[in-house]
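Holo model, alpha-D-glucopyranuronic acid. Inputs:
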Amino acid sequence: MSSGAAAGTLPTATGGLRPQTNACRVSVELSGLWTLRFDDRDWHAGIRDGIPVGVPGSWNDQVPGARDELGPAWYERRFEPPPLAGREAVIRFGSVCYAAQVWLNGTWLGSHEGGHLPFAVPCEDALTDGENVLVVRVDGRLARDRVPPGMVPPGQSHGRAFYPDVPYDFFPFAGIHRRTELVITPKDGIADLRVQTARDGDGAVVRVVADAGDGDVRLSLDGAPIGTEHRVDRHGLWSPANPRLHVLDVELSRGGALVDRYALRCGIRTVEVAGDELLLNGAAVRLRGFGRHEDFPVLGRGAHPAVAAADLHLMRQAGANSFRTAHYPCDEETLDVADQLGLMVIAETPAVALYFGDADSRRRQELALRFLAEMIGRDRNRACVIGWSVANEPRMNHPLAAEAMRELCEAARALDGTRPAGYATDLPGTAGIEAADIVFLNSYPGWYTHPGRLDVAEAALGDTLDRLHQRHRKPVMLTEFGADAMPGAHADPPSMWTEEYQADLIERFLRVAAARDFVVGTHVWAFADFATGQADHRPQSLNFKGVFTRDRRPKLAARRLRELWQATAATR
Ligand code: GCU
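Output:
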């Protein structure tokens, strides 16, 4: 295994620890209005005649005429830093889609490939007093050797043509999509933190590993000193019913002087797969929720705390207890909200629509492994994150495919043995699933198969689930099921594209799942309508399978779910 994911060693999140401001550290927010220019030419020293755009945000829906523009584009941001006082400094990007190159005052700082995870570039040597000019070249163009891939060969996608030419069912938004900060930290300070939990009776033991070089490291939990191993009783555990968070304080001193401090807000809980069950803190749990895209009008794929908070409050109101970050890791503030609201998360890498057997196969696999390691490095301390999805709907029509899924599942377990791993598949009969801890099934009877016939579809789903379980004897999770519903479209009897058809399909399938103890979760596809490329089956370039509209108005299915899940939530 290459790309630095050797068994057992956890790479420091390429974005480093989440920025925070305290007596030892400073985070300077650089989000806001930046200047943008679409251009192939070189503007690394500063751009001229650019236009204003918001960051975080995709440029596609902000700039008239730039909907299908994938770059390259140049961003510029001017700022004045506080004094460094001998400390280290980096520019940290929450995410830039897809490939970024960064300069400060004309000096090259570094580059990053991958659209959904943080990275940081050192800048203290280039930083000057007074005005600084930060320039970022962003390339969102599609290519076969990227993850996710684009412009794939015929026969290597789901067979539906999109423009832009993507093999997946969401729009390839581009831009600086998450918070960007100047982060100033002490030299040789606390580089990383790892919080690992293990069940201990009805409580848990938490093990803290602080990567802080030499010096005295003191740990405290909620203000009380603790050792590197500490037991928490059941009252201190995190769960959807009681999303208890603790403050873990880490202080680093040398020669009796405080060098660095870091405070981590974290929950303590355990997750296990036992037989056909998924256990949270030793008790069987069933996941009720959604697949959720990071997608909103104007923002595109840009993250915004208000959207994160609103979405997760709506999920809770519907009686959901979980969601999957489809089809890429979500923003860190969204996970903050999930930690606080007690929503469990299946964190998914950007490895969607992978295919195998061409010249770029190995490069894509290497990227998928690296993005997996980066995601686990970023999210491993999260109580809300209860499982890893290492890919979504890979094409399994090549002998390498099953091996590739095995390699990804094993890499996830090697990097973090405290959470189950799997990949979402729409091909339940194919090899590769045996490597997963839980079978993640995407299934669309009643829509792509058995259109308009819910009785037949219900039976077909039951049959698929039973055959999967008989074959693999492990828990199964319905990671996707659903139907498109045009907002305001109604029919009696229900027919496809109407709100009634969507609500009935969902209710029926929840019943099919509830009748099977080995089904440990049901995630409706999708939380909200979202943008796709242009295609014959995507009116207005939208996927209408959301139970909320793109601007978060409820469809009939949202109300139906609330009735069904609120009743369930009361009993579990
Ligand atoms: C797939 C896929 C989704 C897609 C959905 C659909 O299963 O994983 O990304 O949006 O089907 O067709 O609605």
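The helical segments are 305-317, 332-341, 361-379, 399-415, 454-472, 499-514, 556-571. The first helix runs from residue 305 to 317.
Archived with the compound record.
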